[in-house]
Amino acid sequence: MSLPSLIFDAHLDLSMNAMEWNRDLRLPQVEIRRREIGMKDLPDRGNNTVCFPEMRRGRIGLCVATQIARFSSRFSRLPGWMSPEQAWAQTRGQLAWYRAMEEAGELVQLRTWPEVSAHVNLWRNAASTAKLPIGYLLSLEGADSILSPKHLEQSRAEGLIALGPVHYGPGIYGHGTDDEGPLTPRGRDLLKQMEELKLILDVTHLCDESFRDALNRFHGPVWASHHNVRALADWNRQLTDDQIRALIERGAVIGMAFDAIMMVHNWQHHRSKPQDFQLRLEKIIDHIDHICQIAGNARHVGIGSDLDGGYGTEQTPMDLNSIADLATLCVPLAARGYKPADIDNIFAGNFLRFLKDHLQ
Ligand SMILES: [Zn+2]
């Protein structure tokens, strides 16, 4: 079984890791870990799984990379900035880092389908990926930082292609994970402007009521960038079967995330260990298969690993040491009956088809 020639990862928080975790993602993984020895400020210190050399080694040549800055003066599960203006400023810093990585030849921003297509060909045909820039499409995870319609226009001009209105808890535009409630009036206006600007709606993190509200109101393209199956990990962070059906009807692609808390039932945050569940990468195939059985095909699932989303190996499958290990999934996928064309579609083809249909 040959490894995939390209993996498209629909969700990485690269700039958050650079600017809040203070990681230089150009360094080898072992060096990033070495520099964090003794640091106790965050639970995933010394456990990171994502850096540019590992992405290249695993042929993750193309990703959706986020700007992310929450506003939260009261919700405590995840801290946030004390004002939306601070959140906006944080996303400015994140964008400046992406630009610096472009200047350094590490990343290249892709905004249109012809750019994506040319980049895919470059990676698929390269004998060695060691020197290739990694392509990224810009998205915004949680829109609290968007101060006004003008700020969204500016973000669009900077190359933003997708937006998730909310993150955890109550937000300015709606209600997110661990919360319940509809979109706010500003959230409804945001969706209208997103349609005008031809932005993709990322439904990930919308609570059930806001999810319903958003799908009813938004008529543009929809995806779920990093989102697993609730029947296999019971929490409103994951998709119900009805939500999966609604997404399939809209032509969405759903990115599989490798955060243990989203892969199994009853994971206790910051207490459980992957060993407690004998959790291996292969578990994700139950999620993939669940969606494919509902769809009747393998055209609505992709990878949205979220592997740098605030956790490391303390909260990932035991047989995942770096993002490059995602490529090994081709073996259990084949063993479960997935044909080479299906496997290629899951690793990259489905999200690429979506972009071909919806990017200009
Ligand atoms: Zn997320």
| Main pleated sheet | 7 strands, parallel
Count of beta strands: 9
Ligands in the model, by name, code or SMILES, are: zinc ion
What is the H/E string? EHHHEHEHEHEHEHEHEHEHH
Shape: globular
Q: How confident is the prediction overall: mean pLDDT? A: 96
Keywords:
360 residues; two-stranded parallel ribbon; 9 strands; alpha/beta; seven-stranded parallel beta sheet; 12 helices
Task: Describe the secondary structure blueprint for this structure.
Elements: E1 8-12, H1 14-19, H2 29-35, H3 52-57, E2 62-67, H4 84-103, E3 107-109, H5 113-125, E4 134-141, H6 149-157, E5 160-164, H7 185-197, E6 200-202, H8 208-217, E7 222-223, H9 241-249, E8 254-256, H10 284-295, E9 301-303, H11 330-335, H12 340-358
Parallel strand pairs: 1-2, 2-4, 3-4, 4-5, 5-6, 6-7, 8-9
The protein binds zinc ion (ZN).
Describe the structure.
The protein is an alpha/beta fold and 360 residues long. It is built from twelve helices and nine strands. The strands form two sheets. Strands 1, 2, 3, 4, 5, 6 and 7 form a seven-stranded parallel β-sheet that branches. α6 links the parallel β4 and β5. The longest helix has 20 residues. The radius of gyration is 19 Å and the shape is globular. The two termini are 35 Å apart. 51% of the residues are buried. The mean pLDDT is 96. The structure holds zinc ion (ZN). Zinc ion binds next to loops. The site of zinc ion has 5 residues, from loops.
Describe the structure concisely for a colleague.
By secondary structure, the chain is α/β, with parallel strands linked by helices. 36% of the residues lie in helices and 11% in strands. Strands 1, 2, 3, 4, 5, 6 and 7 form a seven-stranded parallel beta sheet that branches. Strands 8-9 form a two-stranded parallel ribbon.
